[in-house]
Description:
This protein is an all-alpha fold. It has a domain at 65-157. Helix content is 44%, strand content 2%. It is built from five helices and two strands, in the order ββααααα. It has a two-stranded antiparallel sheet with strand order 1-2. The longest helix is centred in the last third of the chain and has 25 residues, at 107-131. The chain is globular and about 45 Å long. The two termini are 24 Å apart.
Amino acid sequence: MFCGKCGFANPDTNRFCVSCGGSIQVAETPVSPFTPVQFAQPITAIQQPMQFGATSSLAPRKMSFGDSIKYCLTNYANFKGRASRSEYWFFYLFAVLVYIAANILSPILYGLAFIALFVPTIAALTRRLHDTGRAGSVAWWLLIPLVGAIMVLVWLCTEGEKTPNKFGPPW
């Protein structure tokens, strides 16, 4: 599907363009004078895998601290795809540091930070569980005192599957 605003080629499952945020229109060819290739290079870093066999230059397997923060905040509500261990744990570290700093400054600021980072943290958690071959719904195990938290922690620390799984290809 091509975006009606910018002409970027999006996955068939998307309702909004990952390039400009415009709604996707059903069209077999680009609807703008720009070809999708012109938009493909800068955008591929924030897209999630579309198909198992597709070759793409998505987020690298091992991410730096800054790349992880940028990627997770850009994909703040993206619950599809997979996240490497470095992506998840660097973003988790960032969230904890923000919570600590906000709590020191003001309880109100802490509440705002919690609200702002809640959805991106859950999205990163879900993608991390997808990398290990588990559905994001197993995060509900966190509600079981101690045992659930230990199980989810083990799953989060486990190396991701090296082969494509039902959530997408490995990075």
